[in-house]
UniProtKB/TrEMBL annotation:
Single Gene Ontology MF annotation: catalytic activity
Keyword DNA damage annotated: yes
Signal peptide bounds: none
Limits of the Methylated-DNA-[protein]-cysteine S-methyltransferase DNA binding domain: 8-77
Keywords assigned: DNA damage
Annotated protein name in UniProt: Methylated-DNA-[protein]-cysteine S-methyltransferase DNA binding domain-containing protein
Top-level taxon in the UniProt lineage: Bacteria
Organism: Phytohabitans flavus
A GO biological process held by the record: DNA repair
Length: 104
């Protein structure tokens, strides 16, 4: 998979995350690792920072449920509007994490 194809795969996966659910940067990297030969949460973060504007970027969080730095207020407002499970000011990963493998 070329770097350009990887960017497209990351963005396509983010577009599939349902409203009220999230994926972590690492979960995205892990999900695409077998097909792409890459498994870097940082690379996913870089892709989201550079190309993520048109997709539901607010549904991608770190593994502790923290939203993207620099856009915390907007991300939290969007997540709350979608009724994403929260706990102690963060996304409740136990209840909000989504995986395409478990999608019905």
């Amino acid at each position: 998979m070329t770097p350009e194809e990887y960017v497209e795969e990351v963005l396509a996966l983010v577009e599939r995350i349902p409203s009220g659910r999230v994926m972590s940067y690492g979960a995205i990297a892990d999900y695409l690792a077998d097909r792409s030969g890459r498994s870097s949460a940082r690379l996913v973060g870089s892709i989201m920072a550079k190309y993520g504007g048109p997709v539901p970027w607010h549904r991608v969080v770190n593994n502790a449920g923290r939203v993207v730095p620099g856009h915390e207020l907007e991300a939290m407002a969007r997540l709350i509007a979608e009724a994403t499970p929260m706990r102690n000011g963060r996304v409740d990963m136990r209840h909000a994490a989504w995986s395409p493998d478990l999608a019905g």
